[in-house]
Amino acid sequence: MNFMLTAVLSIPAILVAFTFHEYAHAWMADRLGDKTARFQGRLTLNPLAHVDPMGFIMILIFGFGWAKPTPVNPRAFKNYYKDDLKVSIAGPLANLIVAIIFAVITGIFFRLAMGSSGDLAYLTAKMLLMIVTINVNLFFFNLLPVPGFDGFNILEDLFPSAFRRIGDQIYKYQMIIFFIVVFFAWKVISGPSALVIDQLLKLMYFVANLF
After folding, report:
1. What is the pTM of this model?
2. How far apart, in Å, do the first and last CA atoms of the chain sit?
3. What residues make up the domain containing 54?
4. Averaging pLDDT over each range in 48-52, 60-64, 184-188, which range is the top one?
5. Are the CB atoms for 138 and 91 separated by under 8 Å?
6. Which Pfam families match (predicted)?
7. What are the phi and psi torsion angles at 51 (to 5°)?
């Protein structure tokens, strides 16, 4: 029952995290001159445009999943690597911003619901906290330097000459690298995630005590 409750309450958190992450990629690319995402209907906050059914189910069951990748054509940018870097950073940064915003919202809710002991208040608070937690985790997770992740694209844009020399070898073994990194991913990001979440919890209680 606890697993089912957690899975159900995590659905809004996953939808929020995936939607804003992919929308941020699409919005930044569109602003920099690449209209591919706009033409494919991805410049929207409608979760249905961004959620991959299999990736959504995977994250519900196993805690690891994916959204539909936002289509980007770097050749449409005026500054190939600089603009592509902005697009790559936009997704993870959106998750961090969403986490901060919902930390404030959660703090306000704590204040308004103070003294309430009903199930609805408890479930709402748990759902809001999951939105904060999942967005922080996805912020760090997407920064991992793995092919297909934003972290890898960021490094590729920052060090294009180096990646031209080793890129073929990396992509040749990208699936092996992917599974190895994902297997150890939570050990890698758990520390930084916990530090950020701890600071956001302090922000929540600060906001709750403002009124």
Report:
1. 0.89
2. 36
3. 2-70+79-208
4. 48-52
5. no
6. Peptidase_M50 (PF02163)
7. -85, 130
Catalytic residue among 17, 22, 133, 144: 22
Report the C-alpha gap between 108 and 118 in whole angstroms: 17
**How many structural domains does the chain have?**
1
Angle at 163 between CA 158 and CA 166, to 5 degrees: 155
Catalytic annotation present for 156: no
Strand partners, 51: 67
Residue 92 in contact with residue 139, Cβ under 8 Å? yes
Helices 2-31 and 53-62 cross at an angle (nearest 10°) of 140
Q: Taking phi first (over 0 means left), then psi (-120 to 50 degrees means alpha), and beta for anything else, what does residue 144 get?
A: beta
Residues in contact with 78: Cβ distance below 8 Å, sequence separation at least 6, in sequence order: 32, 33
The DSSP letter of residue 67 is B
Token pair for 198: 């701890």
Q: Note whether 143 and 94 are within 8 A (CB).
A: no
Determine what percent of the chain falls in helix, strand and coil, rounding each to the nearest 5: 75, 0, 20
CA atoms within 13 A on the CB side of 92: 19
Q: What is the pLDDT of residues 9-58, one digit of tens each?
A: 889 999 999 999 999 999 999 999 999 999 999 999 999 999 998 888 88
For residues 106 and 201, what is the distance between their CA atoms, to the nearest angstrom?
9
